[in-house]
Fold:
Amino acid sequence: MVYYNRTFIPAHAMPHNNPSPEEISRMLCEVHTIAVVGLSPNQARPSFRVARGLQGLGYRIIPVRPLVNEVLGEAAYPNLESLPGLPDIVDVFRAAEHVPAIVDSCIKLGIKKLWLQQGVIHEAAAQRASEAGITVVMDRCMWRDAVQLGVHSR
Structure:
């Protein structure tokens, strides 16, 4: 048991801790390809705006969304398993209930970095991913962090 917020809770139920800003900066400098799960072709959607912003910083965006052929000039794929190669990171714009299946795919495929966008929170899935050796950032905006930290794809 661990003492957290004046309550004893099991260690495995501890809230996820994101990497430090320095670690996030280093990670974003190492990343070149980003598979964006849930990337909408609708320009008004946050997923589109964030992915376009990341593209503008030099990252290659790989749209992952069923029933869509392309987004932002890139071929779209229905799921992570159908990608022609492994992305450097998976950025998730899906509701929290879909995160465990995405984590399963990342573990199965050997993807080592997972980013759950701002508002996407699933503690148990983040814990499972971390235990599988995946670096997890949760409830943060990748584009905002890249801009604030002054990083881009090299």
